[in-house]
Amino acid sequence: MRRAASMALLLVAMLGVVSGCGGDEPESDQYGPANREAFLAACTDSDVDGVLVRDICECTYGRLVESVGLAELNDIEEALRLDTLAPLPDVVADHVAECVVAEADL
Questions:
Q1: Which backbone phi and psi does 30 adopt, to 5 degrees?
Q2: Which of 19, 28, 45, 100 could bridge to 74 as Cys pair (CB 3.0-4.6 Å)?
Q3: What pLDDT was estimated at residue 12?
């Protein structure tokens, strides 16, 4: 449970980095290499087990790319920035939880 809470906090930080990495086209709804690099850099910058965290972050990023447009992810990030106590939206929390279970072999 503690690891899941840590992942949720990391995700909030990651969303901020991802939303700031739109490149030259801020209106673009396409993820790019800079988004992936920023997401993984923010996600894995922690004191938690590096290999497991990296695997969870890669899994989460992949699932977000497949299911959430960049514009929607930016909206989620903005909402979380405005209300830091708000729970993660279900789509994000579900992906994090699925990846924790999958990557930690729970």
A1: -110, 135
A2: 19
A3: 53
50: left (phi over 0), alpha (psi -120 to 50) or beta: alpha
Query: Average pLDDT in the 86-98 region?
Result: 91
Question: CB under 8 Å to 20, separation ≥6 — which residues?
Answer: 38
Q: Element (H or E) spanning 40, and its range? A: helix 33-43
- How far apart are alpha carbons 64 and 41 in whole angstroms? 16
pTM, rounded to two decimals: 0.68
Residues whose CB is less than 8 angstroms from the CB of residue 82 and which lie 6 or more positions away in sequence, other chains included: none
d(CA 65, CA 63): 5
